[in-house]
Amino acid sequence: xxxxxxxxxxxxxxxIGAAIALIAGRHRRTQVIVSTITLTLVxxxxxxxxxxxxxxxxxxxxxxxxxxxxxxxxxxxxxxxLLVVVSSIVLLAVLLFSVxxxxxxxxxxxxxxxxxxxxxxxxxxxxxxxxxxxLFNLYVGFEILLVASYVLIxxxxxxxxxxxxxxxxxxxxxxxILFLAAIAMIYGALGxxxxxxxxxxxxxLPQSTQxxxxxxxxxxxxxxxxxxxxxxWLPDSYPTAPAPVxxxxxxxxxxxxxxxxxxxxxxxxxxxxxxxLLMIIALATMIVGVLGxxxxxxxxxxxxxxLVSHIGYMVFGLAIATPAAIGAxxxxxxxxxVVQTTLFLAVGLIERRAGSTSILRVRGLMRAAPVIxxxxxxxxxxxxxxxxxxxxxxxxALFDAAAKVGTPLMMVLIVGGIVTSLLTLYALxxxxxxxxxxxxxxxxxxxxxxxxxxxxxxxAAEVQTERRVIPRIMTATTAGMVGVTLALxxxxxxxxxxxxxxxxxxLEPLSISQLEQEAAQ
Length: 521
Known about the structure:
By secondary structure, this protein is mainly α. It contains 21 helices and two strands. It has helices at residues 9-23, 28-55, 78-105, 112-131, 135-153, 159-190, 195-201, 207-225, 234-237, 243-267, 275-294, 299-320, 323-354, 365-368, 370-383, 390-405, 408-437, 442-451, 472-490, 492-506, 512-520, and strands at 59-62, 73-76.
């Protein structure tokens, strides 16, 4: 059996599943079964491909039998396979969470007939972006997930969701226009959009032309990845969506932008150094994001700002540009996808149990919901970087790679990263203390309100909804994701070994002849 025949299934299976789910629009159970089976199959296929490419060589597939580089090339190396595996786990977990929510609430918040087809199309776009071997196919992956994400972010058609959805779509379209313009300029200058061929021909262009193309792609991907100062749209867009949608957006969509930055920086622009600029941007992203989190009183907004700040760690690792740093960046990306998704799922449970996600309103959950307390606490301290969790491992690896380079700017970034980590821990533990430990005592309440009065004007601090029953599947799914976060620590050795091999391989140029050989195997 040729393993290459499995590669197109990563994209075609979700698209076929979306079509079946759309046809079965009036049959909730059928849609659930189709979506679950589809994402499970993708997970199994991706896991097989990860084992194959980690023990052998990358797999390239020319769709339709067109010769490389003229046709659409799907390329699966360790990085692509690993991210598809992690994405499949997250997408499957969030799907099960949404099934529980839909069963309890009906179609009020997430209309099932629309949700499942859109969700599978979103999955196809994410997978397509990860395995794209040329820039235009990467652009197509972005557009597929953009269309699906706009439908998902506006589910329920409330005024706030439509308003933030419009902002989201406008910002995404600006990013897409920049990306498409850069692709057109690259094709005009080099006569190809295949990334391996671009890598070979890029040195033929003048440095000034390379810099213009480089900056355009960085701008496009930085918007999608929510890198400061292009992250203004994210904290207002994500919190208004339904809990499952917010979880998958926070965990995955920004990482697709980071992935695109990693691919282009390591493959296309190795000789065009903007690493100093990237370091400054990384530091600003970390600090501004975490300061924004400290000023919030609503849990989803706190997590949205920490999401922005931790993108800075990934940009930092990319800017160091050593194999060890790239490997640490990949590990930290995997960690952040899982932990950030888990935290948003836990906040979804808090919202149902307490009727609010405002830390000014929620209190006493330690006694009322001890399980939810644990499900929030473990990923929170993980994201904050406490040892021995994966957040600590990833950050330590990044700092170690920076210290080995040893420039003054690297030292400043290390200090900035440590400060950001401590402030993240403070913001998340403050929320945990107020929501779970604070009791319904009048004197304690007055004293606490006085201490946090500066949060009274924070956005969405007064949002209140009815309390809802939490189906067991929602709690079980969140607990399962907490287990995955712990697995990142328990199996950190083998996983980090894969990430190190990814880092070493990414900094080795891939020639078009190698791509043709891999496609011929």
